[in-house]
Amino acid sequence: MEGETLEGRYQLGEELGRGRHGVVYRANDLQTGTEVAVKRLRTQAQDDPQLPARLFREAQSLASLWGTSVVRVHAFGTDPDGALFLVTELLEGESFEAHLADLELFGDRLSSYNLLTLLDPIARALHTAHAQGIIHRDVKPANLFLISPEQGGGVRILDFGLAQVLGFEALMAENTPGGSPSYVAPEAFRGEPLDHRADVYAFGAVVFRALAGRTPFQGDTLADLALAVTTAPRPELSPLRPDLAPEIDAWAARALAADPNQRYAYIPTLWNDLIRVMMNGKGPSADRVRQTFRLPG
User: Fold this and answer.
1) Out of 79, 138, 159, 273, which one is annotated catalytic?
2) What's the pLDDT tens digit per position in 209-226?
3) Which of 8, 77, 217, 244 could cross-link with 228 by S-S, CB 3.0 to 4.6 Å?
4) Cβ distance 244 to 281 under 8 Å?
5) What are the backbone dihedrals phi and psi of residue 9, each rounded to the nearest 5 degrees, phi first?
6) Using CA atoms, how far apart are residues 209 and 19, in angstroms rounded to an integer?
C-alpha cells in the first residue's frame, strides 16, 4: 500500500491500476531517485515454491530484449507477506485496449497507416523475442501500452512471460470471454503444446480487433468461445473495411488459422503480407502507407 517500502528500496506511491494478477503502483527507487512501477502479484511464493525461480529465469531472459519495445524489468522480489513483485520502467500514457475502446465508442476504427505505425515496433520486438526462443503467451491490446508524447511517445509490450510464470490456468481465469481468451490461440484451447505461433495468432487477433472494432470470435461463455475459435469459419474483414484491399480476408484466414501449421509461421511474414495488403488499399491512408513503408526484396 502507499507509503510502504519494499526491500528497503522501492517506496510505493499511488495505485495506478489493478487486475486479477495484481496491483500496479507508482514507486520511488530510493537508491537512484527515479520513479518506477511496481507490480505486486496476487500469487504468493508459498503457494508455489518454484514460482520465484521461474520469475527469476523470465527476468533474466527479458534482459536480452532491452532496446526493443518490451517494457524494461529492473528487478523482482518478495514482500513481507510473501507476495511477489516486479519493478519495471514507469510508463505514462494509455493501453492500446483503452485507445481502441475510445475509437469504438464513436464508431471509429484505426486507419491502415496508423495501425502499421503503432504496431510496427511490436512486430519487431516479438520477432526478436521469438528468435531467442522467448514467447509472450498473452499478446492482447491490454498488454500493449502507448506512451504519451510528453514522455517521448512509442509503444511497449507489457507482462512479457508472465503467462509462462503464472500458468495458462491463471491466464484463462483472469478475464471474461471478451478479454484475454479472445486472443488465445486455438491450440491452447485444445490443450496442445504452445510455441511462438501462439503469439502469431494473438498478434493477428489484435490487428483484426483494431481494424474491425471487435474480436475475431465471440461467445457467451468460455466454452462457446473455445468452440468458435477452434472450429468456426475464419471471419472476413472486407465487409467491415471496404477501404482495404480484398486480399485482407486471405490474410486474416491465414493469420487466424485454427491449425498452427496452416498459420503464418513467423511474425515478419505476417507483417510484410499485411503491409502489402495495406498498400493495395484505397484512400489517403493507403497513399501514406505506400509512401512510408518498404517491403524486403
Assistant:
1) 138
2) 999 999 999 999 999 999
3) 217
4) yes
5) -135, -40
6) 21
